[in-house]
Amino acid sequence: MNDQTNIPRLIRDLRLRMGLTQEKFAARLGVTFPTINRWENGRARPSPLAMEKIEALLRSLGEQCSDLLAEFMGDKPL
Question: Could you give the domains of the chain?
């Protein structure tokens, strides 16, 4: 991932694919609702630790998110 990555779109797409509200997605990642809201609106960026959790979550979802892994993490789609 580089500095040009569209983090707000990644967060929103991942959350929507999981069928979670911002509140439930925040709980899943161990952050607060306002944090997710700021990430999705581009007012803040996830910390390196939060990005590790997001990447691990993407990987755990397998084929469902292989295109996001390819686009945002540089992996080849499954």
Answer: 7-73 (1.10.260.40)
